[in-house]
Write a structure and sequence with these properties.
Length: 100
């Protein structure tokens, strides 16, 4: 299972004042997962388990989790597969067959 988790883009946030889910918990997870460029962690020093998050979310959510390199010309360059992927998902409209 950890092999697949290593390839899923993830951003983890922990509060510096959180006594319920500490940064040590994240680091234990990351160590068990092993080396991965898909897992990022950010410590919000002033946050506890229940407070200090509301004002932070708009800024924290500006960056999407990614396994890829930098955004270039509205495309993400995937460093492992060496292909360009659109930043936003492509929406495909499917035609629904009519009932006769």
């Amino acid at each position: 299972m950890s092999g697949r988790l290593k390839t899923i883009p993830q951003r983890h946030f922990t509060g510096g004042q959180d006594t319920v889910a500490s940064s040590a918990m994240f680091h234990s997870y990351a160590q068990a997962l092993g080396s991965s460029n898909c897992v990022q962690h950010e410590l919000i020093q002033e946050a506890t388990h229940r407070s200090g998050w509301v004002d932070k979310w708009p800024e924290l959510l500006k960056t999407k989790p990614s396994c890829a390199g930098p955004v270039v010309n509205d495309y993400v360059i995937d460093m492992e597969m060496n292909i360009e992927l659109p930043v936003e998902p492509i929406k495909i409209q499917r035609e629904v067959p009519s009932k006769k």
